[in-house]
Amino acid sequence: MPVIIATDRAGKEHRIEGKSGQSVMLNLREVGGLDIAAICGGSCSCSTCHVYVDEDWMDKVPAQQPDEYEVVEFSSHYQPNSRLSCQIPFSEALDGLKVTLAPEG
To answer: How many domains is the chain built from?
Structure first.
């Protein structure tokens, strides 16, 4: 089973056995039990599932679409490696993906 390595807001690392075919957000929240609000339910209209993708993985995750960029760029915690975890489909190809939860707000 592929794994997501996620660092929570307190700096603790979690190894989550992810489910392929689900978004990274669903894996972090429902499988890993991490505190991700995902208020919009994964429809790319809020930034409450904001994560930072580890630099080594930026070229391996699917490209960011313009609508995702428009949502995440206005976050007060935006960084060049910011992504909405609801917009990253998880698969075997992303085994070992490293992400860090962005601060809330």
So the answer is: 1
Residue (of 80, 59, 6) closest to 72 by Cα position: 80
Q: How many CB atoms lie within 10 A of CB 30?
A: 15
Phi and psi (nearest 5°) for 100?
-125, 130
Cα dihedral across residues 44, 24, 47, 57: positive or negative: negative
**Cα distance between residue 84 and residue 86, in whole Å:** 5
**pTM value?**
0.95
CATH code assigned at 69:
3.10.20.30
Chunked mean pLDDT (size 10), the chain, 105 residues: 96 97 96 92 93 97 95 93 98 98 90
